[in-house]
Amino acid sequence: MCGIAGWLGTLPDGEKHALHLLKTLRHRGPDGHGLRSWPEATLVHRRLSIIDLSPTGAQPMANEDGTVWTVFNGEIYNHRELRRELEAHGHVFKGHSDTEVLPHLYEEEGPAFLTRLRGMFALAIYDTRTTTLLLARDRFGIKPLFYAPMHDRLAFASEIRPLLDLPGVDDRPDRQAIFDFAALFYIPAPETFYTGVRALQPGEMLVAQLTSHRLTWNTRLYHRWTIAPDPSITLPEATERTEALVANAVRRQMESDVPLGALLSGGIDSSLVSVAAQDELNGALQSFNVRFAEKEYDETWAAVAVAEHIGSRHKTLAMDDVPGTWDHVTDLLLHAGQPFADTSLFAAHAVCRLMRQHVTVALSGDGGDEGFGGYDLYWQIARIARWQRLPKALWHGAATVLPLFARFGLIPEYVPSRIRELSGVDNTSIIQSLFCWVREQEHMHLWRDKSLLPIRRLFEPQWQYHPAPVVSRIENLSAHATEINIRLPLANDFLFKVDLASMKESLEIRVPMLDEDLFTFGLSLPYSLKVDSRNCKRVLRGVAKRKLPFAVANKPKWGFGIPLDNWVDSQFKLYLRKILLGNSSRLPEFFRPETYRPLVDAFCEGRPFPGISRQGLYQRAIMLLSVQLAMDRNIKCVA
Questions:
Q1: Around Cβ 272, how many Cβ atoms within 10 Å?
Q2: Helix, strand, coil in percent for the chain, rounding step 5
Q3: Labelling 169: which of 28, 83, 408, 414 has CA 20 to 30 A away?
Q4: H/E stretch holding 476
Q5: Is residue 418 very low, low, confident or very high in pLDDT (cuts 50, 70, 90)?
Q6: Degrees (nearest 5) of the Cα angle 399, 400, 401?
Q7: End-to-end alpha-carbon separation of the chain, Å?
Q8: What distance in Å separates the CA atoms of residue 235 and residue 99, rounded to the nearest whole number?
């Protein structure tokens, strides 16, 4: 795992800027660095040594004759098979790192080599024969890669912040990206907060070429997932096959020349990964979790139960020991490089810091919910589809009566508005409402500019879907939700968060649940094997009943969240109110103060806000703060 950067084109004082890139990416690779320059291009690499710790594992790395060079961040899990194939074709290798496969495979197959790679990666290939730069990101978007195109240069980096320090990069805010962020609480690729910086999408490649001092470039997808449910699969068959696929996935991702552990949160997915890893290590696994004081957020009991069940050497970090100060919170938000409002970032970073004291590589359970239907929205879509079959008169009657029930506390306050919102809408509107933190009406009240593209465009289906000859609306909604889960929050929120939290501490996180074979099989499961009443992730739960303690295998899903309103200290709330509501606030450039001021007041005063959940309120506060921080990156205190 590493940090990469570079450019193709003209950049005065190139050596100075290359050294600055190395400095700003040091946290991603403290074990070493490399730099290779040509008159028209530069590649930069920071090394976190994982496989082949010798000098032969250093980057940038080239083929035999030095015509093809690469810098690479990630892991290629099938590199040994590819190496044997390339050696049979006459290629000669100097070491045994997975990176060394890349320039040789590119030399053999050109850009099509990307389809041969299994793993997590962000990479750059520079072909000196044609002055061509190729950038690519893995199929899921596990590893990030950003680029800044200009008329005479295209620069790239593992993080946004280093690009902003290069001359000529347009760092003006992208209003469309901020508009989207205000609804989603993350910025969807290819957008970033900055007009002049783009994010490579999962499964996307960029090819840039310099000819006669003229730079041209284009992007295209080299991979797009296909959802093809197979109704003939039975639950016992699916459970048996999934158990074997999980074991194989973990086995493939265990290669490491440095200590390896597991993030054991107590959820089913991380527990199954930990079981398989312990089997591979013959009892030497180290596992870790984070504990919260509030019981509704804490899964320590489950993590400890699994650790005792498998005999791992387990360590728990108390989140109370990590202070929620202004400096700590803003430091992490600024490190993201652009607005980001998933507050589980703070817990993820805390456990990554703990793990880094003991291991350099850790396995996590991310991706199981996306592949196997693990979120509550999967049973909710069935309920919504059934509701919509009711006569319109019942919908109108419910819209009249339910507010009275809510007023007397008989039902949650949000239910009447949700009923009105979902009455008679199409599939895309249902999916949008389930995935947006901020509903459309609130979003439009919050935002000043009405000329931007609607959020709905992000939720239109884009992937191929091959249903059975006769398919229900629920099956269609399930496929639609699965696509959006993978294409939007998985890549732009959850995986971005994991990379951000782990690489800040120079820790590599691997995600076996995103193994290509395992995930493809998950996409082949029909809705009936994902949901049973309100129980989601049926197949993985079936595996869990074979492998885990009964109470863990049968417990409901808990999100990996943090009670931020109680975790941050009182001074944080004082600073927050001053920053967001004071005269120097930049928020009115985008948002209506009369809409967000009551939200900020409610959060800072520790009281509920009508129609918004506790988590929804503190997520909104962090959303607003992260926009303000991005507008003024130098805010560190408000004394």
A1: 27
A2: 45, 20, 35
A3: 28
A4: helix 473-485
A5: low
A6: 100
A7: 39
A8: 39
Exposure of 438 in the CB half-sphere (CA atoms within 13 A): 27
What is the Cα–Cα distance from 565 to 600, expressed in whole angstroms?
12
Parallel, antiparallel or unpaired: strands 531-532 and 535-536: antiparallel
Rounded CA gap, 98 and 79, in Å?
Answer: 5
Torsion angle in degrees (nearest 10) through CA of 59, 62, 64, 67: -160
The alpha-carbon radius of gyration of the chain (Å, integer) is 25
Residue among 277, 249, 263, 253 nearest 520 (CA) = 249
Total-model pTM: 0.94
Query: Do residues 119 and 105 touch, judged by C-beta distance below 8 A?
Result: no
Average pLDDT, stretch 205-219? 94
* Average confidence score pLDDT of the chain: 92
SS (H, E, C) 128-166: CCCCEEEEEECCCCCCCCEEEECCCEEEEECCHHHHHCC
User: Which of 211, 268, 218 is CA-nearest to residue 239?
Assistant: 268
Strand ranges (E), 424-498: 464-465
Q: Give Cβ neighbours of residue 172 (< 8 Å, ≥ 6 apart).
A: 194, 195, 196
User: Residue 31, exposed/middle/buried by CB under 10 A (0-12, 13-18, 19+)?
Assistant: middle
Token pair, residue 199, equals 């994010």
Residue 639 has pLDDT above 50, yes or no: no
Give the tens place of pLDDT for each residue, 510-539: 999 999 999 999 999 999 999 998 889 999
The separation between CA 532 and the C-alpha centre of its own chain, rounded to angstroms, equals 27
Tally Cβ neighbours within 10 Å of residue 580: 23
Cα distances (Å, whole numbers) of residue 536 to 237, 300, 397, 467: 18, 22, 31, 20
In one-letter notation, the amino acid at residue 391 is P
CA distance 61 to 55: 11
Q: Are strands 260-263 and 286-291 parallel, antiparallel or unpaired?
A: parallel
Query: Quick one: tokens of 145?
Result: 């890669």
Calculated CA dihedral for residues 417, 418, 419, 422, nearest 10 degrees:
120
Do 629 and 334 meet the contact criterion of CB atoms below 8 Å apart? yes
The total number of residues shown for the chain amounts to 639
Name the maximum alpha-carbon separation found in the chain.
77
C-alpha span between 146 and 155 (Å, rounded): 8
